[in-house]
Amino acid sequence: MNEEGELELREACGIFGCVATKNQQVPLDVPTVISLGLVGLQHRGQESAGIVTTYGKDVYQISKVKGMGLVNQIFKPESLEKLKGNIGIGHTRYSTAGASQIDNCQPFIVETMHGLISVAHNGELINAKKLKRKVLSSGIGLSTGSDSEVITQLLSSSPPNGEPNGPDWPARIKWLMTKTPTSYSLVVMHKDVVYAVRDPLGNRPLCIGKVLPGTGSLPNINECADQEAHGWIVSSESCSFQAIGASYYREVEPGEIVALTESGVKSVGIVERPDNGLPAFCIFEYVYFSRPDTLLEGQMVYTVRKRCGMMLAHEAPVAADLVSTVPESATPAAMGFSIESGIPYVEVLCKNRYEGRTFIQPSSRLRQLGVAKKFGALTDNLKNQRIVLIDDSIVRGNTMGPIVKLLKKSGAKEVHIRVASPPLKHPCYMGINIPTREELIANKMDEELLAYHFGADSVRYLSVDGLQTAVKEGIKDKGKAGHCVACLTGTYPVKLEW
Ligand SMILES: O=P(O)(O)OC[C@H]1O[C@H](OP(=O)(O)OP(=O)(O)O)[C@H](O)[C@@H]1O
Ligand SMILES: NC(=O)CC[C@H](N)C(=O)O
Ligand code: SF4
Ligand SMILES: [Mg+2]
């Protein structure tokens, strides 16, 4: 909730982990690698960030730096100096549960029977309230409003079969996973291991990269399979690998627990989905949240967005002189629309690069002002032109109205809005703070009314089928892929229990 008491559509957090491999002549600078990794994930969370590191020898010895703000503001050389270790995890946050304040800043650290554990979480527990009651009734106090703290506390209790041979973290993680089906991608650090965990539905992304000696080269993993790793990393998105000189290794599978140690990467368990149904990977990661250079399910997000634009041109054609984008995230879809329709792609809006993403402004008033400050019209390109204007999504409708006004005022003859995703009508309970039903403009107006409201000549959305087809086209094993489309259809991947 913001100060006006309204829920906002926010992005998902970014999580990152790194382990240096043993016997390296020049050891990997793990704190710097993690901070670079988090910069690459900055688009997923801009409220606060934190890094925890250790040498993995003493279960009570860790160093941590956390703060409010952007990664580069928090991790300056002086603060990176404070981080010691050859293994660590990091987080960059957008709050979905618990206020945006330093107490809720991640990674969370708690002391367990076996020493300290640190946890960074992306997602939102669908049954957080129930689990919170469970934790509290077992006599454990909670000090924050964050569901990620609930995860950390649940991991600090022994699994039902006990631990006759010492701490069994995979068993503890599996036990947690049977208590909550979604939504979480986690990095859990204890002593000398980072566990990378993806919930059984695979709702949030998580992938592994191999750090190679030197920087700059990014060979395909098949080309560098024989090269010795300098370290291993795990990240919400592969876009963060490029800055580190790491190559993409593989995704963490839905329900999988992978251990990263100085000896390498090992799958240490998998929790099946209860009904053996398909995964429910968030389709909005493709539409808006992920960076276009990220690989999801073996395909580049940019390519999928382009295909959505092509599909949209096919489903909702219109006679026009040019196709354009509402920058940034809609640009690949606009390219796709242009290719499929044969109408040239021309830029009509100039974006102020110092203005952030509008969704995430802390209040409605600021969001509206934000839109006005964010765009200028490229008048020479649009005078007397019939424009097809592509956006990736319409949520509250704050962005589109002022833009159409600006374009018309600047001389556009017609503005036809084409949206590269279906109408957003239902809330998300899995890690994205989509506004309430009442605030979502698609619940108040159909396409015709929206066109009138925005002052546009027409509005058309992509169909749910069209979006799913565009996403599935590039997935190799189509039979195994499944996506959550709950905010578009109202059908949730699991029963909602509070
Ligand atoms: O209907 P609304 O409530 O206005 O929200 C929809 C807009 O918000 C997002 O852009 P945003 O400015 O967040 O980021 P971007 O620059 O990555 O496109 C999205 O891409 C749409 O343009
Ligand atoms: N966006 C997220 O993934 C948030 C994680 C967690 N629920 C929090 O609010 O901190
Ligand atoms: S409801 Fe929408 S935003 Fe939430 S996980 Fe599902 S597809 Fe993603
Ligand atoms: Mg946008």
From TrEMBL:
GO terms for biological process: 'de novo' IMP biosynthetic process; purine nucleobase biosynthetic process. It comes from the Eukaryota. GO terms for molecular function: 4 iron, 4 sulfur cluster binding; amidophosphoribosyltransferase activity; metal ion binding. Binds 1 Mg(2+) ion per subunit. Keywords: 4Fe-4S, Glutamine amidotransferase, Glycosyltransferase, Iron, Iron-sulfur, Magnesium, Metal-binding, Purine biosynthesis, Transferase. PROSITE patterns: GATASE_TYPE_2 (PS51278). It holds the Pfam family GATase_6. Pathway: Purine metabolism; IMP biosynthesis via de novo pathway; N(1)-(5-phospho-D-ribosyl)glycinamide from 5-phospho-alpha-D-ribose 1-diphosphate: step 1/2. The keyword Magnesium applies. Its EC number is 2.4.2.14. The active site is at residue 13. InterPro entries: GATase_2_dom (IPR017932), Ntn_hydrolases_N (IPR029055), PRTase-like (IPR029057), PRTase_dom (IPR000836), PurF (IPR005854), PurF_N (IPR035584). In the C-terminal section; belongs to the purine/pyrimidine phosphoribosyltransferase family. HAMAP family: PurF (MF_01931). This is Amidophosphoribosyltransferase.
